[in-house]
Write a structure and sequence with these properties.
This is Heavy-metal resistance protein. InterPro entries: Metal_resist (IPR025961). It holds the Pfam family Metal_resist. With 146 residues, the chain is an all-alpha fold. It has a single domain, classed as Four Helix Bundle (Hemerythrin (Met), subunit A), CATH 1.20.120.1490. It contains five helices and two strands. The protein has a two-stranded antiparallel ribbon with strand order 1-2. α3 packs antiparallel against α4. The longest helix is centred in the middle third of the chain and has 39 residues. The radius of gyration is 19 Å and the shape is elongated.
Length: 146
């Protein structure tokens, strides 16, 4: 069976999207009986006081806006990659540049997420920080935390 250019393009795009989603999910969730995000862990497991909850809500609102912008930027970079692939039908200079752009946008998202994680950590008391640090390490390594 012969594979056409459009089919190859779609397969590559689906693989890129799946990879992006997988990378993000791996950084946000750990394996438990149900996936628990870092935000859920902080809210449900760390017994935050009212002041901590209020500051965390502010951080989360700001990060939601930043993350939406970064997600849109990543989608636009993926669209540029699709266009370059359709134009070149080969691993040419436009495709290579578009891939670099996608990776840069993914890196921007990861850096923003890590900055947000550290901002959340600063809201915690030392005992909460220890538990938080174990949870972050567990989320990143896939090894059991708490």
């Amino acid at each position: 069976m012969k594979v056409g250019g459009l089919q190859l393009l779609l397969a590559v795009l689906l693989a890129l999207i799946a990879g992006c989603i997988g990378a993000f999910a791996a950084s946000e969730w750990r394996e438990t009986s149900h996936p628990q995000t870092l935000h859920e862990f902080v809210h449900e497991e760390l017994d935050l006081d009212a002041a901590q909850n209020a500051r965390l809500d502010q951080l989360e609102a700001r990060f939601a806006v930043e993350r939406k912008e970064l997600d849109l930027s990543l989608r636009a970079a993926n669209a540029r990659l699709a266009s370059a692939m359709e134009e070149e039908h080969d691993y040419g200079p436009k495709v290579a540049a578009a891939i670099d752009d996608v990776h840069a946008r993914m890196g921007d998202l990861q850096k923003a997420t890590v900055r947000h994680v550290f901002a959340m950590r600063m809201l915690l008391d030392p005992a909460q920080q220890q538990r938080f640090d174990r949870q972050v390490a567990s989320s990143l390594t896939g090894e059991p935390g708490e």
